[in-house]
Amino acid sequence: MSNPNSAAASSWQVLEYYDSGLPIVMNVIEDFPPKSVRDRFGWLTVMSWKYNATQNHGMPTPDVNSQMIQLESAIDSIQADELCVQVYTKTGNGLKEFVSYIGDRNEFMRAFSEALAGQLRCPLEIGFSQDPEWGNLQTVQRIHLQKE
Fold it and tell me: Which of 35-53 are b and which e, b meaning 16 or more Cβ less than 10 Å from the residue's Cβ?
């Protein structure tokens, strides 16, 4: 089956800005996915990892960053299995967010748990909200990429 996640092949833009005097780095897909992808993945999923912002000018320490890279690899494997479309990440001021759209929460969580089994224990909070129009991504792109 061909990969319906054309957003996975989308180009990404790296953005840098400041929040409360601390740097924020954001990677966001530039192209809004086609309706066929949006229809399949209607749940906004935000994975939040809080870390100590008093060190390293609000950015994760090398050890924490290494763990975050492992987590992102797990998310990439789930995306490769066509269970999610990652749309942006945001890092800085004591918070890393991995933002994706998924189709089925139970299937996603099962695959996510399997991808991380025995590898990584991290202080992760996962929030789900229905967003069939992908309004969150539209807002992020409009604000950060100056898209109309």
Answer: eebbebbebbbbbebebeb
